[in-house]
Amino acid sequence: MELSSKSEYALLAMVELAIAYPTGEPLQIRQIAAQQSIPDRYLEQLLASLRRCGLIRSQRGAKGGYLLVRDPSNINLLEILNCIEGLDKQPVEETLNAKTLEGATVYDIWQEAGQAAFAVLHSYSLQDLAEKCKARKQLDIMYYI
Questions:
Q1: pTM here?
Q2: Which residues 6+ apart lie within 8 Å of 119 measured at CB?
Q3: pLDDT, position 94
């Protein structure tokens, strides 16, 4: 399973929104884009998708921007990736279409790996991801002192 740049950028943007969540202040596209080095226009499209999925909301006005709809601890990574990539909740069973017994066996193992990946993504919340990022930043700062 590979992480697309589209999914990576969406997760990075959501981490920024999760970090800002306790303040209640919306983040503007240019703030998120500058902090995470994401092209503005691309980020705008990703945020529109996340808004349509009900994970974030936009606020108009001079102090406008984007906010998480729910607490980051109540948003799992699978929800975000499902929104951006259109992933199914569980991999589809297609062992019946395998041409050989060996092919069916390989497919079964691939399905098991996919289910494990879905389970891991479902088990991590956006808050978990934000906390891991904060901890890594602290280690990085301490390393350079």
A1: 0.83
A2: none
A3: 55
